[in-house]
């Protein structure tokens, strides 16, 4: 989509990407479903949908405002058309916006969350509650932007969902919204909170691989369904603020209302790092595209960690670097920038404890992939292997020794072999 590509921007030295002023990253459907399910498990289905759709609304509104301004779109019809075309480019499926100034309806097909949930779980589990909170937030924000309504004044509910075995996803947009557009975390925010890029081990190799991957993913197009497939997964160009707000709002609500289970919820959000590294990094390493770009993965722990670090940079996760690597024993991974810390600092201030859950646990997953997977055997990256690696055979401890959410200069996690 020409308008979306015109908004592409970056902080290249920091390995961060933006659409206009909105930070975005590449994540796969396994990560997206796990992340959203964690919110559901923590808060219950109804409250979780409200938290997720509100976060989607706030993140989407700013992108859509930048988009219609860039396109010089004046009429509501033009603006709604642009909003409908942007969603498939991001890999989120198709959403017909049938809204007017005070609300209306929307109809979705192949929406990323509902469709991928049905693909992954539908043959084993019957879902009872809608899955497409991101599309709901997008529909509310798009209607506000189209009609110049007060930001946050609308809300959207999903009445039918493909994940619940309905023929299509249907939504109702109405008044009574509670999204807060006052505090926005955009490109300028990141520039305030990130540190000068660190130089780690194998820096030249990491930089070269990351550059090649950035070029490759930038050229990936969605299919006729509005989905993006690559590396054996459904890929989204997703708004980073959605992930951050849903995770941190959920954790803060649990800390206030159910403090005894806070650690459990933090561990689940941390496990999303395992899920991402296994399915996304692992899928990339096992793909023919990677073999053409870099060569087949080797059974060499240092090479796998170098590759995973480069993949993190290439997907817009930030400037991750290897401060120390002792195969079989220890990894010290640093990030002078990531997509978690600037959001936290801007929205909530300094934290008393480390809060970069995704970054910390991704480092541990790097070591697990590096030492426990036989890459020469072309492994099948399925749920059985994931359970084997991360549920019963996780032989690494981690400690987040520095974190920018606490005001530290860099993020740093130390992963060490777990003693028997």
How does this structure look, described?
- Strand 12 and strand 13 (411-417) form a beta hairpin.
- This protein is an alpha+beta fold and 420 residues long.
- The mean pLDDT is 95.
- The longest helix has 27 residues, at 45-71.
- Helices cover 48% and strands 19% of the residues.
- The chain is globular, with a radius of gyration of 20 Å.
- The protein folds into 2 domains: 2-175, Muramoyl-pentapeptide Carboxypeptidase, domain 2; 192-225 and 261-417, no CATH class.
- Helix 8 (203-218) crosses helix 12 (301-314).
- The protein has a 5-stranded antiparallel sheet with strand order 1-2-3-9-8.
- The protein is built from 15 helices and 13 strands.
Q: What separation lies between the terminal Cα atoms?
A: 53 Å
Radius of gyration: 20 Å
List the strand order in the largest sheet. Answer: 1-2-3-9-8
Mean pLDDT: 95
N-to-C SSE string, H for helix and E for strand = HEEEHHHEEHHEEHHEEHHHHEEHHHEE
Per DSSP E runs of 2 or more residues, the count of β-strands stands at 13
The geometry reads as: globular
The helix-and-strand class reads alpha+beta
The main pleated sheet reads as: 5 strands, antiparallel
Number of domains: 2
Uncertain residue segments: none
Note the beta-strand portion.
Answer: 15-25%
- Count of separate DSSP helical elements: 15
- Helical content stands at 40-55%
């Amino acid at each position: 989509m020409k308008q979306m590509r015109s908004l592409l921007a970056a902080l290249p030295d920091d390995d961060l990407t933006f659409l206009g002023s909105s930070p975005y990253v590449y994540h796969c459907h396994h990560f997206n479903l796990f992340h959203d399910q964690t919110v559901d498990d923590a808060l219950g289905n109804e409250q979780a949908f409200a938290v997720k759709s509100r976060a989607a609304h706030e993140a989407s509104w700013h992108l859509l405002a930048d988009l219609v301004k860039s396109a010089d779109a004046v009429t509501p019809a033009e603006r709604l058309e642009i909003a409908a075309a942007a969603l498939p480019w991001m890999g989120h499926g198709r959403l017909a916006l049938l809204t007017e100034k005070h609300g209306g309806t929307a109809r979705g097909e192949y929406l990323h969350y509902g469709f991928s949930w049905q693909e992954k779980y539908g043959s084993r589990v019957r879902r009872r509650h809608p899955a497409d909170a991101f599309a709901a937030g997008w529909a509310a924000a798009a209607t506000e932007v189209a009609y110049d309504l007060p930001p946050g004044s609308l809300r959207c509910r999903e009445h039918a969902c493909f994940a619940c075995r309905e023929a299509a996803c249907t939504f109702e947009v109405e008044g009574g919204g509670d999204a807060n557009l006052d505090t926005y975390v955009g490109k300028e925010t990141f520039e305030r909170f990130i540190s000068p890029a660190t130089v780690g081990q194998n820096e030249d190799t990491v930089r070269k691989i990351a550059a090649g991957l950035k070029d490759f993913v930038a050229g990936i197009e969605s299919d006729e369904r509005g989905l993006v497939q690559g590396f054996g997964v459904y890929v989204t160009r997703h708004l980073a603020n959605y992930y951050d707000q849903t995770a941190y709002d959920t954790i803060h609500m649990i800390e206030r209302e159910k403090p005894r289970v806070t650690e459990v919820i933090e561990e689940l959000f941390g496990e999303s790092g395992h899920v991402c590294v296994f399915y996304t990094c692992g899928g990339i390493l096992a793909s023919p595209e990677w073999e053409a770009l870099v060569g087949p993965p080797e059974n060499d722990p240092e090479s796998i960690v170098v590759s995973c670090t480069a993949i993190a940079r290439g997907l817009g996760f930030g400037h991750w670097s290897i401060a120390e690597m002792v195969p079989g024993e220890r990894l010290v991974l640093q990030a002078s920038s990531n997509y978690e810390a600037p959001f936290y600092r801007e929205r909530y201030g300094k934290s008393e404890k480390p809060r970069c859950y995704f970054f910390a646990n991704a480092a541990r997953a790097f070591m697990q992939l590096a030492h426990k997977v036989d890459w020469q055997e072309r492994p099948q990256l399925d749920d059985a292997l994931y359970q084997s690696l991360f549920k019963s055979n996780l032989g690494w401890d981690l400690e987040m020794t520095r974190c920018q959410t606490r005001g530290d200069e860099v993020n740093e996690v130390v992963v060490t072999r777990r003693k028997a």
